[in-house]
Amino acid sequence: MDIGRAFAYPFEDSDWLKKVVIGGILNLIPIVNFATVGYAIQEMERVSRGEWVPLPEWDNFGDKFMNGLIIGIALIVWLVPVWILLGASIVPIVLSSMAHRSSSAGLGASLLAMFLGGIWSFVVAILYPAIAMNYARKRTFGSCFEFSSIVGMVMADPGSYVLGIVAYLGAAILVGLIAQIPFIGWIIGLLGGFYVLLVLAGAYGQVLASISPGAVASSAPVAPPAAPAHQRPEPEGELLAKPEEKPAAQETEQDESPS
Question: Count of CB atoms within 10 A of residue 89's CB?
Fold first, then answer.
């Protein structure tokens, strides 16, 4: 993976400032910022085909919004176990307070539920780029939950996948550091969230390009193996080309006839 290209490619577009500023402003608006996620999905798919620049225009806003909304809803579904576990962790505490006595068993159950919720949140965070890649490739809501394909994308090129996470975190840290600069840094920090999405798209677009079709789960039918040569039927042309064999008795009569 070319991490440096993932950081630098947005600036290769002659209109990068206009597109990044529009994306940065939209990214600050709740609900509307689903469009910036859809924009990143579109760019990820383009990078996987080698089309780094120019960056997509801000047209077809509805399509970008819907793609981002689908990813957002899918993420909520993936995190449903976390909400359930967090809710379960509160119940023992509430019951103990209502009974005006503490329970070590209830406290242990609460801590266990919170621990499991944290583990699952971490798993979803790791799988999130693969979920986005699978959706960028297939563009169906169901593709966000194809667990075997998603895990297959992670395992097909784990080194590059981890580098993508490093690039994403590095971009976020870079924007955070720039935001510490008074005045101009604050503005860049506010708009920098969209730039982080572009780095994510550039990094995992490369990962998506490196994954061969056979590296992930596929539902395509497998062609049956060819039959052995001795079992294959002879073509009709070969049958017609063979000369007709004469009976042995007929050949003997022709030899004995007078000349």
Answer: 20
CA neighbours closer than 13 Å in the CB half-sphere of residue 192: 21
**Nearest alpha carbon to residue 198 among 70, 46, 72:** 46
Asked if 157 and 133 touch (Cβ cutoff 8 Å), the reply is no
Mean pLDDT of all residues in 137-150: 94
Q: Distance (Å, rounded) from C-alpha 14 to C-alpha 59?
A: 17
Residue 162 sits at the vertex; the CA angle it makes with 158 and 168, to the nearest 5 degrees, is 145
* Distance from C-alpha of 229 to C-alpha of 210, rounded to nearest angstrom: 37
Residue 161 to residue 150: CA distance in whole angstroms? 12
Phi, psi of 188 (to 5 degrees): -60, -40
Q: Distance of alpha carbon 80 from its chain centroid, rounded?
A: 20
Best CA proximity match to 153, nearest among 79, 117, 205: 205
Q: How far apart are CA 60 and CA 198, in angstroms?
A: 18
Q: Which of 126, 152, 20, 136 is nearest to 71 (CA)?
A: 136
pLDDT digits (tens, 9 = 90+) for 78-115: 999 999 988 877 776 666 666 656 566 667 777 888 89
Q: CB atoms < 10 A from the CB of 172, how many?
A: 16
User: How many whole angstroms separate alpha carbon 79 and alpha carbon 144?
Assistant: 13
Q: Write down the pTM of the prediction.
A: 0.76
Q: Whole-angstrom Cα distance, residue 196 to residue 36?
A: 11
* Segment (H or E) for 211: none
Report the alpha-carbon distance of residue 49 to residue 209 in Å, rounded: 7
3-state secondary structure of 159: helix
